[in-house]
């Protein structure tokens, strides 16, 4: 139950991403700076935390041992996750992006065959590829149905351009985030705590953000003061607090694909928090009865997903799979 609660708290702070990104876009800010500034601002906050815990030297040793893996999976898990999210904010409202992002519930489950597990059987441990948790995905379909109902009120007013440029990049992000997160869990092998891992991934993704920033300077100019301030708020709420909570929740269930899927399903709460936030801060349309019924389905789907995932879960141990998956 603890990983589920941590996931819900993470969803609350993640919701600020969709609200503030939309706010920055409405104010004329470039999506490039909304993306890059968040990770630039995350570095000093995380650096202070890791230094205070005297864990920076072990982190450097881990990063030096497998620099290419850190660079690759951090760029995917952070870069190809957040850049498309911010790009979509220029074409679609925050509620649509938050709702579309919930496809990660299924995306994360579909990634299970890319990883190997040691499954404990009567004959001893056996190395097997992860299996797609179909029971959990059935519960995820309830969550997605609720999300669809929530958005029918506004979806009729969207153009084809808003749907394509506001939805498809988010679908890409929905695969990149769990893939990068899970791969880095394998690379770290439990040797780093969540603060070290987030800081390490942030530092390893810096080349991605620096290249994007150079492109931003040439095409959009420097960021505005208001966008800089809001980006710092996103960095604290979503980049530090939410990411640390979510990574800690996934660490608690590392190696159990069903429970991991349940934790990832808690991110559906972002939709509820984003709707409330946009009502309070951006004066968006008040959800109708159909939308509220969708929210009930989201919560019901989460409860059922958690129950199915924790009932009779097999005992499994995650092993390093980076080489296996890269060669497949």
Query: Roughly what is the average pLDDT, rounded to an integer?
Result: 81
SSE class: mainly alpha
H-E string = HHHHHHEEHHHHHHHHEH
Please count the beta strands (DSSP E, at least 2 residues each).
3
Separate helix tally: 15
Shape: globular
User: What is the domain tally?
Assistant: 1
Spatial gap, N to C terminus: 35 Å
Radius of gyration: 19 Å
Largest sheet: 3 strands, antiparallel
Amount of beta strand = under 5%
Strand order of the largest sheet: 2-1-3
Spans of 5+ residues with little confidence (pLDDT < 50)?
312-328
Helix content: over 70%
Transmembrane segments: 31-51, 71-92, 98-120, 132-152, 158-177, 198-217, 229-249, 261-283, 289-308
InterPro entries: EmrE
Protein name: Multidrug resistance efflux transporter family protein
Keywords: Membrane, Transmembrane, Transmembrane helix
Your description of this structure?
With 328 residues, the protein is mainly α. It has one domain (2-327). Helix content is 76%, strand content 5%. The chain has 15 helices and 3 strands. The protein has helices at 2-26, 31-52, 56-65, 67-89, 94-101, 104-110, 134-155, 160-188, 194-204, 206-219, 225-252, 257-265, 269-281, 289-310, 322-327; strands at residues 116-121, 124-129, 316-318. The chain has a 3-stranded antiparallel sheet, with no helix packed on it. A hairpin with a 2-residue loop joins β1 and β2 (124-129). The longest helix is centred in the middle third of the chain and has 29 residues, at 160-188. It is globular and about 55 Å long. The chain starts with a helix and ends with a helix. The model is unreliable at 312-328 (pLDDT under 50). This is Multidrug resistance efflux transporter family protein. InterPro entries: EmrE. The chain crosses the membrane at residues 31-51, 71-92, 98-120, 132-152, 158-177, 198-217, 229-249, 261-283, 289-308. Keywords: Membrane, Transmembrane, Transmembrane helix. Pfam families: EmrE.
